[in-house]
Amino acid sequence: MMDRRDVLAGFVAGGAAAAGLPGGLADSAMPAPLRAGSQVSLARKVGRMLVLGFLGAQPDGEGPDRIEAHLSEGRIGGVLFLRHNARSRAGAEGLAARFRAASPNAWMAIDQEGGFVQRLSREFGYLAIPRARDVAAGGLDYARELYAAAAAEFSAAGFNMNLAPVADVHMDANAVIGRYDRAYGQDAETIAAFCAAFIDAFEARGAACSIKHFPGHGRSSGDSHDGFVDLTSTWSFEEVEPFARLIEMDRAHLIMGGHLINERLDPSGVPATFSEPMMNGLLRRAMGYRGTLITDDLDMGAIRDHHTRREAVIRSIAAGNDLLLISNSANPDPELPQKIVIWVREAIEAGMLTEARIDEAVARIDALQGHVGMR
Q: Which of 159, 273, 298, 360 has its CA 20 to 30 A from that of 318?
C-alpha cells in the first residue's frame, strides 16, 4: 500500500492523477443520497447550508429579530456569533436561547479556541482557556480535564458549534497563528493528539468542532482577515499531516478551509475556499475525508475585497463546501438568504452548479448533526 506521505507528495507534484490514487477513492468520499431530497424545496436545502451572522449583542433588536425570522422560516441553518455579538454573558446566552427556540436544530457557532480567540471570555465569568501552546505544555491529561470543563460551559451557554480547534503548525514569525500561540506545536503527532482531546470533549457535549485552517495557515506571512494570503513559497505538505492524522483517528467530522492561495496545489491561484483541487482533490480524494466542509467567513477581507457575495457563494459551493459562514455585518443585507437562493437557482440553470451538489451538502450536514446527537 502506498504511504500517505507519498500520496500527498505526489498530489503536490502533479495532482491527484499523478499521485496514483486508487480509482474508487473519489466515489468513496461521497455521502449517502439525501433522504427524500426531491421532496425538499431548493430554498430549504440552500438554507440548511447558511450560517449567518448579525448585528446585535442583546436578545432584542432589529438584527436578532431578522435572524429569528430567518430561522423560523428555514432560510438559514445556523447563526454565527462574532466578538461584537458576545458583549456580556446574559446577552450571548439570551441570543442563543432565542435563536434555538426558533429552530432547535440550528447551529449556534462561535470561536471558543482559548487564549486570544475566546468569545465567551473570562471577562464574562467563563472559564479562561489557555493558549494552545500552553495547554500542550501541560500535557494531555490536563488538556482533557480543561476541555471537558470548557465544553460543559459551552453547551450550557446554548452553543453547539465551536469554530476550533486549530490544526495548523506553529511558527513564531506567523502573524495570525504563531504570534498568539494558537497552534499546539510543530509536529503532527502533538497537534493531532491535542486537537483530538479538544474534539472529544466538545462532541461529548453535543457540539461540532471545526478543525482549521486547511491546507495549513501556520507558515503563512499574512492574515486572511485583511487580504489574500499566498502560501505557495512557504507551505509544505507536512502542514496537512495533522489533518490527515485526525481523519485516520476518526476525529475529523467538520473541517474549515482557509482563504489561502497555494499555486502548488491549485495553479489557478484561487484561495482554498474556491478550490476544487484543494478541497475535493487533496482533502477528499487524496486524504479520504468524508465529513462536512465549512468556509471561513466569506465577508473577510481576503474574499470581500476581491469578489462579490454572489461569486463567493457560488464558487464556495462549487468547490465542495457544505456550510457557508457569512458574518453579514460589514455590509448587512437583511434579505441575504433569499438572494442566495436566487443566485444558486440561477447558477444551476446556467450549469455552474447542480442540485445534486446541494443534496450532497445537505446529506453531509445531516450526518454531522447525527454524529453530535442533534438528530
A: 159
| 329 CB-near residues (< 8 Å, 6+ apart) | 53, 54, 55, 82, 84, 299
Query: What one-letter code names the amino acid at 336?
Result: L
Q: What are the DSSP calls for 310-330, one per residue? A: HHHHHHHHHHT-SBEEE---S
Grid cell 468520499 in the structure block, residue: 29
Cα gap 153→139, rounded to integer Å: 22
Does this model's pTM top 0.90?
A: yes
First to last CA, the chain: 37
Q: CA geometry: angle at 209 spanning 203 and 212, to 5°?
A: 155
Supply φ then ψ for residue 2, to 5 degrees: -70, 135
Which residues, at least 6 apart from 179, have a Cβ–Cβ distance to it below 8 Å? none
- Cite the DSSP H helix spans in 105-258: 132-138, 140-156, 188-203, 241-248
Categorize the per-residue pLDDT at 13 as very low, low, confident or very high, splitting at 50, 70 and 90: low
Burial of 182 (0-12, 13-18, 19+ CB in 10 A): buried
